[in-house]
Amino acid sequence: MADDDELRVGQARGPYDIELLDTSAEELANSHLDLGSVLVPVVEGGQVTVEMSPDHQPEAVYLVTPHGRISVTAFAAPKSPGLWREVVRELAASLRDEGATTSVEDGHWGREVLAEVSEGVHRFIGVDGPRWMVRCVASGPAESADPLAQLARAVLAESVVRRGKDPAPPREMLPIVLPPVLAEQVAAAQQQMFPDEEGFAPPTTAVADADSPVSAAAPPAGGALDQIQRATVIADSAPTGGGVEESGGAESAVTENDVDDDPVPPSSGSAMQRFRRRGGKR
Question: Where are the domains of the chain?
Answer without folding.
Answer: 16-176+239-277
